[in-house]
């Protein structure tokens, strides 16, 4: 005879298991139905256009699901087990692995490779100030002038001819998928996290090395104007809510569906939610939105194979995504955030928006593969994605910031660099150094300039 507690426990377990089975069956039904409709469409259509219907966002029982055959959902049991594994990996990574010597007889520690550099704050601020003045005067002639800040710029920039400000894209990796990108003077912060801890100073993974930029540095570099913050999803290593509260409503937040409520709890209301395949013109949000800005900017929200939620109870209540920024109809930046690999999905994105100038692709957190493969990509898979997108440049991010998976800390870096070397593309497929400012000429195919 079972006790009341045992009966209640079995009842909860049965109910949860039944719900998970229902979610999986309904998701598979959505995938099969879309596949059938897509096959029917392409067999009867003569158009060369791209059909997005197979990869539209989908919900089952009020939560978002992945409409991809390659995806395997995780249960609450797997979620909890992996969180325990992450805590163990973090302790090992920070206490032991970080201080290990490099292989091959190198006398340096791993942390020497992960050291932070100081970004070129003066160059970033200089460009920000010029654009802001242009917007104030509604006169954009200075965007076509090649100028340099009087001090603080690295020697390489003084030796190599700089492109016009209108044609500059600056990229500075802050850690994980967080970066400060400056496009023709427009400042964009991606997946913001600067904290040394994911959860709190006493609980959760600790950053391997401090962030190369503080919020004060970012405010200085942007002359107090971060124009846009792009958030791919709400995981703690992609959205630091305490930092979001400090940034507040001084910027325009662009997020996937369902995240507006979470930001509103932090007093943030200057938010635009986007669904997969939505495109948002950006000119109306640059400056006062009424200037005659001579270039056209827009952002498109594209699908990713991942999930959302910071706790078990809020799993997949908001969407996850990647972003493509376009300038004058040309795709200049792909911010992936987090994603697993789906060949057909990325071929579709590439057909619609390729070629791309620069792709920020995650290369870490792929072990153990039985758990990570549906949700994250390896360095080799990141290169496959870049090929599908026809991306000229790749920066491998989402590694070396927190130790939250089983692969060695530096393995993603070495694997991607080896692939680039084998393909004779080391100048175009790179692993960024924390804090270095990389300059891309939007009108040239030359490799990026980096401050050393």
UniProtKB/TrEMBL annotation:
Q: Which residues form the Metallo-beta-lactamase domain?
A: 187-399
Cross-referenced InterPro entries, in alphabetical order?
A: Metallo-B-lactamas, NAPE-PLD, RibonucZ/Hydroxyglut_hydro
Q: Which PANTHER family match?
A: N-ACYL-PHOSPHATIDYLETHANOLAMINE-HYDROLYZING PHOSPHOLIPASE D (PTHR15032)
Please give the name of this protein: N-acyl-phosphatidylethanolamine-hydrolyzing phospholipase D, mitochondrial
Give the species: [Candida] anglica
């Amino acid at each position: 005879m079972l006790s009341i507690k045992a009966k209640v426990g079995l009842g909860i377990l049965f109910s949860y298991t039944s719900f998970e089975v229902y979610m999986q069956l309904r998701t598979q039904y959505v995938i099969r139905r879309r596949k059938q409709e897509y096959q029917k469409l392409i067999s009867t259509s003569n158009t060369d256009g791209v059909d997005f219907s197979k990869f539209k966002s989908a919900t089952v029982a009020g939560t978002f699901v992945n409409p991809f055959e390659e995806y395997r959902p995780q249960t609450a049991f797997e979620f909890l087990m992996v969180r325990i594994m992450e805590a163990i990996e973090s302790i090992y990574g920070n206490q032991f692995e970080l201080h290990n010597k490099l292989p091959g007889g190198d006398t340096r520690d791993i942390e020497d490779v992960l050291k932070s550099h100081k970004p070129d704050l003066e160059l970033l601020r200089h460009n920000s100030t010029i654009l802001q003045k242009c917007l104030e005067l509604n006169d954009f002639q200075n965007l076509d002038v090649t100028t340099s800040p009087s001090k603080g710029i690295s020697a390489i920039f003084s030796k190599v001819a700089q492109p016009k400000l209108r044609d500059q894209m600056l990229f500075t990796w802050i850690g994980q998928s967080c970066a400060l990108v400056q496009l023709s003077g427009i400042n964009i912060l991606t997946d913001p996290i600067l904290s040394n801890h994911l959860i709190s100073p006493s609980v959760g993974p600790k950053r391997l090395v401090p962030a190369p930029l503080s919020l004060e540095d970012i405010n200085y570099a942007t002359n107090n104007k971060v124009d846009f913050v792009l958030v791919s999803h709400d995981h703690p290593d992609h959205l630091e809510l305490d930092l979001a509260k400090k940034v507040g409503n001084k910027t325009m937040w662009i997020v996937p569906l369902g995240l507006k409520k979470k930001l509103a709890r932090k007093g943030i209301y200057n938010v635009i939610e986007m669904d997969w395949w939505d495109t948002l013109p950006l000119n109306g949000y640059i400056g006062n939105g009424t200037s005659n800005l001579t270039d056209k900017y827009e952002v498109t929200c594209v699908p990713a194979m991942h999930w959302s939620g910071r706790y078990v109870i809020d799993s997949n209540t908001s969407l996850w995504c990647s972003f493509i920024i376009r300038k004058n109809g040309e795709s200049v930046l792909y911010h992936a955030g987090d994603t697993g690999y789906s060949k057909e999905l990325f071929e579709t994105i590439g057909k619609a928006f390729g070629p791309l100038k620069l792709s920020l692709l995650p290369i870490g957190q792929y072990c153990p593969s039985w758990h990570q493969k549906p949700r994250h990509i390896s360095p080799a898979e990141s290169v496959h994605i870049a090929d599908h997108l026809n991306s000229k440049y790749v920066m491998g991010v989402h590694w070396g910031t927190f130790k939250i998976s089983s692969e060695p800390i530096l393995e993603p870096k070495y694997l991607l660099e080896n692939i680039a070397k084998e393909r004779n593309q080391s100048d175009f497929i790179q692993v960024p150094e924390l804090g270095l400012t990389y300059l891309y000429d939007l009108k040239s195919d030359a490799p990026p300039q980096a401050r050393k």
